[in-house]
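Re: your question about LacI family transcriptional regulator

S., sorry for the slow reply, the queue was backed up all week. Below is exactly what I fed in.
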Amino acid sequence: MKPPTKPVKKIGVRALRVSAADVARAAGVSPATVSYVMNGRPGVSTEMRERILRIAQELGHTASSRADRLRSQRTRVIGLVLTDIANPFYTEVAAGTIDAARRQGYEVFLAHTQEDPLTLAGVVDTMIARQVDGVVLTVLHPDDGEVIRSLRSAHLPFVQLSRRIPHLEADFVGIDDTAAASEVMGHVLDHGHTDITVIAGPRNSSASAARAQGFSRTAENRGVELVGIHRINTYLTEDGGHRAVTRILADRPPPRALVCGSDAIAAGAIGALHSRGIRVPDDVTVTGFDGLFPDTSLMGELTTVSQPRREMAELALELLIHRIEGSGRAHRTNIRPHALRIGTTCGCPGRGASAPESHGRP
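Result:
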């Protein structure tokens, strides 16, 4: 790359002919980088953006005033798209995102989709029309490529939280769902259970699919095969868990253990068992996933995986703001630690604390 030349401002008629190439030569960057800055697109660091705008102004590049206007026209609003605000997992993600955004001078445009792809498409179109500065998405399915194309066509940065589209080049914050699920299943197997049914979330959720994979592989590695009636998918709600158990009990006696893909599913499953006089953990042991319920709640004895939901929300917001402000760094995958929290619903005596070791990588 040639060293940058000293800017020489053109005057009069010549100023009208100052091109992006002139600015690029003076700044020692490519014309494409100058174009990104002048059109207010992400992908350029804040420092470089400011330098290019200063040089463009010194040269008298007429488009620099447009770039200044674009920079000043940020709405200071970010979009947050949740799966279901009624699920306590997403409620806490929302609270963490809103608090972190306000500390950075942003407000949050909040929406939820309840797993409906048409609702997701409409929500994203609305956020683009309302000119939010970026979007955090917790709802993506592998077939949501059209939504991603819409965001990228609008030059709108986004971050995936908890769920992701496989092989998509985009920022992501989550946990190692497969490893966490393996730990839960291992604990259930350590109790000696072999009659186990898994109730997982939707198959097209990357997080639910990874958990289901972790449950199944760990069981199979220990000689317990989970096929057919031993694997059920449902919605990530208490109603989903209740319906799944109702379906199980209509066809056969209750299994000795229910391993659930979320705490909301586990809560619904326990409710369905209790309504039929089936005791937990004496008759059926139950585990969850997410760590939603505090020790003081009725569900505080649930054996589950704890994940740092607020921290994840804050990190997603931080990554998004870096993109909004023009960070050109490579997309990041940020896997946060999780912990197995032992309660009594798995058959362990007394309430336990979090496992001494957290898992995952920073």
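Residues 88-103 form the longest helix (16 residues). The domain at 177-308 is CATH 3.40.50.2300 (Rossmann fold).

Happy to talk it through on Thursday.
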